[in-house]
Amino acid sequence: MSAPAKPARRLDAETAADIAHNPFKADFPLLESNPDLAFLDSAATAQRPACVLDAQRRFYEAKNANALRGLYRLSVDATEAIEAARSRVARFIGAAHARDIVFCRNTSEALNLVAASFGGLVLKPGDEVCLTIMEHHSNLVPWQQACRRAGATLVFLYPDENGVVTQAEMDAKIGPKTKIVAAAQVSNVLGIENPVREMGERVHAHGGYLVVDGAQSAPHLPIDVEAIGCDFFAFSAHKAFGPFGIGVLWGRDELLDAMPPFLTGGEMIEYVTEQDATWAPVPEKFEAGTQDAAGIVATAAALDYLDGIGLDVVHAREQALVAYLMARLAELPYVRVLGHPSPAHHHGVVSFVVDGIHPHDVASLLDLENVAIRAGNHCAQPLITWLGEESTCRASLALYNDQSDIDRLIAALKTTWTTFNPESQK
Ligand SMILES: Cc1ncc(COP(=O)(O)O)c(C=O)c1O
Question: Would you indicate the residue range of the signal peptide (predicted)?
C-alpha cells in the first residue's frame, strides 16, 4: 500500500498570487508528465492532485467492500469512510448536519433530483420558476420538465451588458408567483458571481425557495450555505480536484424529509412488500444502489487539499491569473472578451471570440500548439444566443496554472490569427 499523501502546503495569498512561479503544479501528476501542455479547461473538469488519486487507490487497497450491506469489518470500514466523507463535505459548505448531504453522480443529477422531487412536491399550475438566462443546461432543462409537468411557467433574469443581474431585474421578476429561484452562483460562461443571497431574500419574502448551482463556485469561493441562505446547493467533485462520478446535494433538513425519493431500489428503502415500500431516512432515501465509496473518499481528500491551501489563497492566485489573461487578450485587437470588463468579476473563467474565426477552428489550432481551451455553447445555449453569438472560446483557470500557460495561449492565438489572415503578416 502506498504511503498517505502529504498534506497540501499552505502559502500566503501574496506568494500564491505570484504567477511567474508555480508552487502547485508538482501536486498534479498529469501536468507534471505533460510539461508542454497549457491546460486551460478546468471549468469543464479539473486535474487531480496525487493526494486524491492516492486516496481513491488506498480505499480499494484497504477498505474495499460494499458499504451499508455488510456486517463484517471491511464493509463497516467502507460505511464509516463514507460517513466521515459526508461530514467532511458538510464542513466544506458550512452545512450544520452531515445527514443533509446527499451523494449523487454530479451536479446534473443533483439538480434533476431537486427539480423532479421537490419541484413535483411544491409546484402548482400558475407558479413561476425563475432562472437566470446564464444557467447551464443542467439547471435549465430539469426545470423546463418540472414546469411542464406542473403547469408552471419559467421566467428569466437577464443581466446588464456587463453580465450583472441587477436589483431592478430581481425586483421585476421575483414576486408573489415565484415558487422557486434556481441560479448558478458563478456562470460557467461569463465567470461572474450572481447575487444568489439577494435572490434568496426576495424569493423567501414571497414564501418560495432558492436552489443554487455551485458547480463553478465551490472550486473557487468559500461556500457557506447558511450565509447564502439557500434551500438547496449542488456541486460536482470533478470540478473541485475530486474524482469523476461524485456529485453533492445539500438540502434543508425539513425539505429533504418531506420530499419523495428520486431514484428507487436497493438501500433507499425501510420496508418492502409485494405491492409497496417505505423509505429509509435522509440521506439514504436519495442514495439508491451501491455508492461509489472510493470516489466519495477521494472527494473528501480533494476538499482537504483545497481547504489545506485555503480558498482565500486559491482566490488570490486565480484573480492574478485572470487579470494577466485579460490584459494579454486586450493586446489582441481581433479578440473580444465577453462579460464584465473587470477581472474581479471573472471567477476563473474568461470567454472570448476571435474576429471571423469560428471558435471550433480556434480551439483546434490552439490544440496543435498544445493549448487546451473549450469552444462551443458551453451547455448554456440560451445565454450564447442572448449574447448574439453561436459559439465562444473559453479559457478557464485553476491554481495550477501560471503565467507561461497564458503566454502560450496568447502566442497560439497570434499564430491562429496569421494562419487565417496571412495578409496581416505583410
Ligand atoms: C454552472 C454549471 N452547472 C452545472 C454543470 C454540470 O456539471 P456536471 O456535468 O458535473 O453535472 C456545469 C458543468 O460544466 C456547470 O458549469
Answer: none
